[in-house]
Amino acid sequence: MGRGELSSAALPRSFFDRPSHEVAPDLLGRVLVHGSVAVRLTEVEAYGGPGEDPAAHTYRGRTPRNAVMFGPPGHLYVYFTYGMHFCANLVCLSEGFGSAVLLRAGEVVAGLDEARSRRSKAKDRDLARGPARLTVALGLLREHNGLDAVREVSPAGWPRQSATMLEGRPVLPEVIRSGPRTGVSTAKETPWRFWIDGDPSVSPYRAHVPRRRSVAATSVGEVPSS
DNA sequence: AAGGCGATTGGCT
DNA sequence: GCCAATCGCCTTG
Q1: Structural domains of chain A, ranges and CATH numbers in brackets
Q2: Which segments of the protein form a coiled coil according to its record (predicted)?
Q3: What is the pLDDT of residues A21-49, one digit of tens each?
Q4: What is the C-alpha to C-alpha distance for residues A83 and A223, in angstroms, rounded to an integer?
Q5: Which of A27, A74, A87, A109 lies most in the core, judged by the most C-beta atoms within 10 Å?
Q6: A224 CA, C1 C1': separation in Å?
């Protein structure tokens, strides 16, 4: 699939200057391009914003890790988690609020060969089905934290180190579903996960599971239960 | 200074 | 369905 089929314009920065739970459903059907790969978003989650969101990385204030989330809208917030995965967000609202939309899943619509080579064991529909899978398919890494996703589309193509959020084809409100966010341990009722109903690239929902204590922590000095 | 645990994934039962 | 992998961040002592 060639780049020529991506005829859509870039989303303006003003698109992101709203609370993340308003931006999130509007991102469904839009396209994120990075290098030669493009992904059409089918599932997103909103975090942070003007009010209190205990599930957001920004809940306890600004730190070196979450600094980008407090910065200008339209930039990528890429974080490292579970010691092995990267997840990508788009920063929302003007500076200082700490608000972003997690990109949870999508469909690869350009650069299929490149995405397949990055995730060689995955079926096509699973290439970007999950937040860490999506970042691998797009080639997003720690170094892309803070990258500006608002830029003009160049007829010559996209340089490898750039990202662009395209208008794509926003979906009809009737096909948008919403529900609790995946895998969060707090604010379990906040319905800030949004997805396209019936789309095969939407990831399976998982509730938060408290982790069992490590073997070392339980076997040393543990009093046997009676 | 130390330990708990995470906006997850893939492999195995 | 269950669980290990793997490490940086943040809380607590």
Answers
A1: 3-207 (3.10.300.10)
A2: none
A3: 999 999 999 999 999 999 999 999 999 98
A4: 31
A5: A27
A6: 28
Task: Give me the pLDDT at residue A188, please.
Answer: 92
Show the DSSP H helices in A28-147 as ranges.
Answer: 112-118, 131-138
Please name the nucleotide lying closest to A102, CA to C1'.
B7
In Å, what is the separation between the CA of A215 and the C1' of C4? 11
Range with the poorest average pLDDT among A50-54, A71-75, A97-101, A198-202 = A50-54
Say if residues A8 and A31 touch (Cβ distance below 8 Å).
yes
Name the residues contacting strand B (CB < 7 Å). A 45, 47-48, 55-58, 69, 77, 81-85, 87, 89, 100, 102, 119, 121-122, 126, 130-134, 181-185, 203, 206, 208-211, 213-214, 217
Percent of chain A residues topping a pLDDT of 90:
81
CA-to-C1' distance for A26 and C5, Å?
A: 35
Q: What is the pLDDT of residues A71-120, one digit of tens each?
A: 999 999 999 999 999 999 999 999 999 999 999 999 999 999 999 999 99
A212 CB inside 7 Å of strand C: yes
The secondary structure of residue A204, as a DSSP letter, is P
Give the integer Cα–Cα distance in Å for A81 and A159: 27
